[in-house]
Amino acid sequence: MKIEILGTGCAKCVALEKVVEQAVAKVGGFHEVVKVDDIMEIMKYNVVSTPGLVIDGKVVSIGKVLSIDEVVKLIEEAKHNA
Question: Which domain holds residue 49?
């Protein structure tokens, strides 16, 4: 599973990155976590408010810092929909 954090380095982007790392550790298994800070790459997802969270190519959150449990839930949902 590929998880992308879209953001240019703002405080919310950094906070979401930490939350995602903790959620991935909680879920276990292999997950590729990638930080995308290139504005042109971010725009390809039609995300205009960062941070954005993308799981397996699907934008699942825009413009907010999620809780660890919210990210775990999104990861679990993506697993079931794969």
Answer: 2-81
User: Which residues on neighbouring strands pair with residue 4, listed in sequence order?
Assistant: 34, 54
**Residue 6's CATH number:** 3.40.30.10
- Mean pLDDT by runs of 10 across the 82 residues of the chain is 94 96 92 94 93 97 96 94 77
Q: Is the pTM of this model over 0.85?
A: yes
Catalytic residues: 10, 13
Beta strands in the chain (DSSP E): 2-6, 32-36, 52-55, 58-62
Overall number of domains in the chain: 1
